[in-house]
Amino acid sequence: MDKVRKNKTAIILFMLPAVVLFAGIIIVPIFMSGYFSLFKWDGMTEGAFIGLGNYVELFTSKTSGFPKTVQNALLLAVLSVFVQLPISLGLALLLAKGVKGEKFFMAVFFVPVLISTVVIGQLWMKIYNPQYGIINTALHAMGLGAYARTWLGEQETALFAVFVPILWQYVGYHMLLLYAGIKAIPTELKEAARIDGATEGQISRFVLIPMLKPVIRICVIFAVTGSLKAFDLIYVLTGGGPAHASEVPSTLMVSMIFGRNRYGFGSSIAMFIIFLCFFFAISIKKMFKTEVE
Amino acid sequence: MKRKLIGMALALVLAMGTLAGCGSKTETAEGNAGTAKGDTALTLWSIATESDSFNRAYTQAIADFEAANPGVKVVHETFENESYKTKIKSAVAANELPDLFYTWGGGFSKAFVESGKVLAIDGYFTDEYKAELPQAALSYATYDGKLYGSTYTTPVSALFYNRKMFEENGIPVPTTWDEWMAANRAFLDKGITPIGVSVKDTWVLAMTHDALTLKSAGPEKVAAALTEGSQSYDDPDFLASAGKIKELVDMGAFISGATGLSNDEASALFYNGTVPMYLSGSWMGGSIVTDAPNPEDFDVIPVPVLSGNAQSTDFMGGAVDTLMVAAGTKNPDLAGKAVFELTRGISKYAYLDGAGIAAWEKNYDESGINPITKKLADYAAEATSFTMWFDTLMDADDAGEYLALLQGLYVGNISPEEFVKAMAAQLDK
C-alpha cells in the first residue's frame, strides 16, 4: 500500500478523474466567466472587448442597481447569522438534551430542507396571497385588516417577505449540523460540569457552545455564502421585483444574461459573487482562528 | 509489481469511462432524431405543449404535411414558454438548432439572424404562398430586406370587457379616453375595481402601456422612436401615455395587489366577474371560452384613442410567432418548403380552434368560430397598422430596461417625466 502511495504515476492516475471533473465543472467555468466579463457580448454574435467596462458599469449604473442587490444579500447574510443560527442552536441544544419525541421533532424541523424549493415557493405564495392568503385572512379575522397588505408586491415588505421563508427553510439544516456536533461531545464533560454544580444553562453556555465552535464556524460559512448566492426562492416568489425591491446579485445576473442577452455584464456579476463568497469564507475562518488563540 | 499494474489499469478504465461518458452524449441525442429507414426526418421545436391552445393545430398541420410528403417525418418537440426562451438562446450559441424552430420575430431573434445561424428563405417563398400570406405579416421575420421565417397568427391586443357588469351597473361601453375614464370612475363609485392587470408579470402592464402609447403617439412615431432612433422618446406624446398610467394607478383603477399577482391570478379575477375590464392579447378570446363560467357575458373593443395621431383601427400586435429554419439543416429545400406548409396549416387549424387569428388567407368555412375571436379577426383584417408589443420590438436589453422602468412607474418610484427621460437614455445607448 505504501508503495502505491509513493508512486507518482499512480497518484496522478487515481486523481485524474476527480481533477478533470472538478476542473471542468468549477475551475474552468470560473476562468471563462472572468474572460467573458471583459466583453460586451450577447452570447451569440461576436463580442467586443471592453476591458473593465462591465465592472465600472456594475458600480456606476443607476438603472441596474447592483450595489443595492449586494446590500440586500449582505442583509440576508446578517439575518442568517444573527437570527437563523441562534434559533437553530437553541433548537439543537433543546433536542440534544433529550426531549420526548426527539426523533419526531428532528424530522419535523428537517422536512423543509428536503422539500423542493419551488414547492416551498408555491406554498409561501399562497400564504402571502393578498386575497386568500392565511396571513391576510388571519389579520382580517382579528380585526387588524388595516395591516393586511400585498406582502410580495409592496416594495417595503417584499424583501422581508422573501427572507422569512429562506431563513425558515434552512433552520432545520443548521440545527442538524449543530445537533450532530453536540452529540459528538463526550458526555463525561457534561456530567463533570453537573457534579461541579453547573445548571443546564451554564452547561450549554460554558461547556457545549465552546466545544461546538468548529461546527458553528462551518454553519456561519454556509449561512453567509448561502445568502450571497441565494436565488431559487426569490426567483419563484418575486423574481426580484417589484421594481428591484427584492433583487439579489444572482437574480440580477440571471435577468441580465437570459432576459437581456448581456452575457458579459452577467459574467461580471458572477465574478463578483464568487469574489464575495471567497472573501467571506476566508475572513470568517480567520476570525474564528484568532479567537481560538 | 503486479498489483501496481492492476491498480493503474483500473484507474485507466475509470478515466476512460468518465471521458467516454462525456463523449457518447451527443451521439444519443442525434440518434433520437432518427426514424425508420429511408425516412427523412425534420426536427421541429416549439412551445405548443400539450396544454397549449396551439398544440392541436400543430399536430394536425404536421399530419397534413406528412401525408402530402411521403417519406418525410416531422419530429415535434415542445417546451414550456419561459424555459424555451433560455433554451433557444443557448442552442443558437452552441450551434445545436433543430431543422425548424419556433421563435419570436422582431428584436428577440435579431441576434440569431446576425449570428448567421438562421437560413434566409426568400427562395422558397413561391408565388403560391405569396398569394395567400400578406407581405405585411412577415415584417417581423424580415431582417435587412431578407426573409428568415414564416408566421401563422396575427394576434392583436384589445380591451376585453364583461358586458353583463357594464349593463347591470348602467355604464356605457367606452369608445374614447374620456368615456373610458368616466366608466372607471362610475365603477369605482359602485365599489368595483374596474381594470385587471398584473405587474408581477410585467408584460401585462406593458400591454396596457403599449396600447395607450400607440393611441397617443401613433404608429409612425412609435416605430421611429423605438426601432429607427430618428425620434426621441422624450416627447409629449410618450409622456402622455406614461402620465395616463400614473393617472389610472392614482385613481385606483387597477386591482389592488397587482404587483404581487401573476397574469393567471389576475385574469382569473376577470373571468370570474370581479373586475369588468382586462387589456390583453387576442388569445384571451380563446381563454374566456375555456376559463370563464359564462363566456357569453364577455365582449371586446379596440383600445380607445388618446389623440389625433392614432385611429381606432391602429392595433398593437402583429405576426411575431415565427417558424425559422436553421442554417445548419441537412435538408434546406425540404425545410424551406415545410416552414410555409406548416405555418399555413397551423394558421387554419388554430383559427378554427379559436386559438389564434389566422395570418394566412381564410379560404375555408369559418362559421363555427367563437364570436370574440371572430370579432378580433375582423379587427385584424381591417387594421390600418400593426405595431409589435414594445418588449418584442426592442432588442432584449432595451426591453428588459423598459419593463423594469414600467414597474418603477407603477409603484411610484419614478415620475412619468423620469420614465420618458430614462427610456430616451436607454434607447440612445
TrEMBL record, chain A:
Domain of life: Bacteria
Topology of this chain in the membrane: Multi-pass membrane protein
InterPro entries linked: MetI-like, MetI-like_sf, UgpAE/MalFG_permease
GO cellular component: plasma membrane
Subcellular location as annotated: Cell membrane
BP term (GO), one: transmembrane transport
Membrane-traversing stretches: 12-36, 73-95, 104-125, 158-180, 263-284
Pfam families attached to this UniProt entry: BPD_transp_1 (PF00528)
Gene3D superfamilies tied to this protein: MetI-like
Record key words, sorted: Cell membrane, Membrane, Transmembrane, Transmembrane helix, Transport
Keyword S-adenosyl-L-methionine: no
The keyword Cell membrane is annotated on this UniProt entry: yes
Matches recorded under SUPFAM superfamilies: MetI-like
Domain ABC transmembrane type-1: 70-284
Family: Belongs to the binding-protein-dependent transport system permease family.
UniProt name for this protein: Sugar ABC transporter permease
Organism: Anaerotalea alkaliphila
UniProtKB/TrEMBL annotation, chain B:
Keywords: Signal
Recorded coiled-coil stretches: none
Keyword Cell wall biogenesis/degradation included in the entry's annotation: no
Signal sequence, renumbered to the chain: 1-20
Full protein name: Extracellular solute-binding protein
